[in-house]
């Protein structure tokens, strides 16, 4: 490999790719990013299938909001413990080998879960244990996939590439959850894990095709892993804008994502439906993610990203607050769409700004801090679940919405200049 310039240059036979598919997909003209992106699509598809199946299985076994949230906590704990280490791994070790190990581990967990369910051996503790083990691999996966994007596509395509990653993660919810829910309805929850394991075979193959760029810096001068971790914290702490981006990225989304643990109860107790409706609602919500992602991806730059992030976060909080009083499918549906749009736009703007302002050698560590929201969210979900068990599912949604709006108010008070970036 001759360097960064080579891996970001489209091959001649793909020279007309951008013109053929349009600006929103420009980064897919870069072969290495294309393989990374298709792997992201596969990984996200399996993740959404697992999330739906895991929550539904826990609900079927217990009928408790707290138990459903607890399963998600089991997956979040290792992400909280090992998430920052994932950033160090991304900045320190061979990325292809690391991803291959991570993805082989995830494939194994899906296969084991499928076997337990299909052989009728599954118990609640199995769901908790495998969720924990999956959390270990997830804590390492995304920091590598996100931090390497600028080196694969170049800075001119970075917003486009980050937006396409958001589409891969959130847009797969457009078809995935509904399809998985109907598969579960016909063949049982074990079929969702068979599907996830099969998809991960393709994820492994795409990883073998990526030519990862060298990790910046002299390997002999990187120091200890603990030293590298502290270097990342020092960088975040000394830059007020980076710190604000990290904290704002953590708070609202750690809170908002927790609403997923309330959905099974909303479906059965308020909308009086079944698992198929759960899949439909999650897929409909993805319309917002897909539309917002395509809009952002079609732009090379978005001005006033700070203001944009604040506006969409307020919209996210307001949509969840309104869910507390929603009792009809046609009311719930647009609220979920608004929330999904807000997530996609915020994540694209936030991640792009962080990667632009962070040196190559530190990106894995900085990105890993923002991804702790996936670990903190289940903890918030426990609180929302306890409230829902005590006062009804509407109270759980209202709690989440109010909490998000409070974080936005705090961010504005601490760093009012944020809206100008």
Please give a structural write-up.
This protein is about 75% helix and about 0% strand. It is an all-alpha fold and about 425 residues long. It has a single domain, classed as Up-down Bundle (Growth Hormone, Chain: A), CATH 1.20.1250.20. The chain is globular, with a radius of gyration of 20 Å.
Oligomer: single chain
Number of helices: 19
Give the biggest beta sheet: none
Average pLDDT across residues? Answer: 81
| C-alpha geometry | globular
Category from helices, strands and their pairing: mainly alpha
H-E string: HHHHHHHHHHHHHHHHHHH
Question: Approximately how much beta-strand content do the residues carry?
Answer: under 5%
Give the low-pLDDT segments: 1-5, 16-21
> What would you report as the Rg, rounded to the nearest angstrom?
20 Å
User: Number of DSSP strands?
Assistant: 0
Distance between the termini: 37 Å
The CATH homologous superfamily is called: MFS general substrate transporter like domains
CATH class: Mainly Alpha
Indicate how many domains the architecture comprises: 1
